[in-house]
Amino acid sequence: MESPLNDSQRRIASHRIMFDDLLSREIQESLLRASLAGSENGRHETGVIEFFCGLYLQFEEGIGRHFRGDFAGVLDKTFFKHRFGRKGLVPEVMGGATSSGEVFYTIHYSDDVLQLLWMSMRLANAVGKKPSVSDVVAAVAMNRAWTDELKRNGLEPSWKMADFESEVGTVLFYAAVHTGEHWPRQMEFEHNGAFHPPFTLEVCTPSGRFQPVQVAKVKLNGEEIAEIASPEKPAANVRVELLKLNKIEFELEGPQFGSIDVIIRGTPA
Questions:
Q1: Which CATH fold would you assign to the domain 167-268?
Q2: Under CATH, which architecture does the 7-157 domain have?
Q3: Is-contact 38 50, C-beta < 8 A?
Q4: Given phi > 0 = left and psi -120 to 50 = alpha, else beta, which region is 222?
Q5: What residue ranges do the domains of the chain occupy?
Q6: Within 127-231, where are the H helices?
Q7: Which residues of 173-196 are buried (b: 16+ CB within 10 A; e: fewer)?
Q8: How far apart are CA 155 and CA 210, in angstroms?
Q9: What is the DSSP letter of 186?
Q10: What is the mean pLDDT of the chain?
Q11: Fewest CB within a 10 Å sphere: which of 18, 21, 68, 170?
Q12: Are 7-157 and 167-268 in the same CATH fold?
């Protein structure tokens, strides 16, 4: 979360979650489970990990398959007292009931949970529906702070997730080099200060349509820094130093349409 909500923002978001028809019944009940279990366990606020424990109480198998880790253990640690099934939707102790039979307990959603719910709604609304557990899982993956909180509690996504920031945003130099005789064997590129060290060079056989080379060697500024061979060693990753103007050279052996991918990464300034 970039900045905390002010009191009015927090109140209107909580009011709409509780009284407007924004969420699917299943997500509403997951929030109820999380808030009730939190209240019974002396927690003052429903945060991301409490909400996900509520989802686990509601969708034990459905949510569990999306994450690696001991979800049951996280639940036990977060909510010492908890109940699956319909029992988890009503307070265990009814002493707070009013004369009309209604039961009240304090509900406080963290700013992160409110923003996570809105992100889930946005994803679901884009295809004309209310958020499901899949939308919540997709939404949490959009924010590194939320995934980091789950990770600190022992839960990581089961699937590899695309990450534009790390996969593309860190690239300073890229070339797909082929064995064809007309393909250049040397290139130059500038390091203009847009990226900070450490710098790493990655070279690998391609995962696309082109065939892997048999052997490939890479030189940077006159020094051989990496060598790969297929299938024994299809990739290499080495730390490199850059000049303002850099020369990179390639030696390839392999089939007519063999190829390698070469990437140099840094930290964006």
A1: Jelly Rolls (2.60.120)
A2: Orthogonal Bundle (1.10)
A3: yes
A4: left
A5: 7-157, 167-268
A6: 133-140, 144-152, 164-167
A7: bebebbbeeeeeeeeeeebeeebe
A8: 37
A9: E
A10: 89
A11: 21
A12: no
Owner of token pair 């880790």: 69
pLDDT score of 98: 35
Phi, psi of 245 (to 5 degrees): -120, 125
Torsion of CA 245, 251, 254, 258, to 10 degrees: 10
Read off the DSSP letter of residue 103: B
Per-residue pLDDT, 212 = 82
In angstroms, what is the C-alpha Rg of the chain? 26
Which residues does 6 contact at the CB level (< 8 Å), separation at least 6? none
Whether the full predicted model's pTM is greater than 0.85, yes or no, is: no
Per-residue pLDDT tens over the stretch 147-198: 999 999 999 999 888 889 999 999 999 998 888 888 889 999 999 999 999 9
> In 3D, which of 263, 183, 252, 174 has the Cα closest to residue 213?
252
CA distance 58 to 88: 9
CA separation for the pair 143, 215 (Å, rounded): 40
Inter-axis angle of helices 133-140 and 111-125, to 10 degrees? 120
Average pLDDT of 83-111?
67
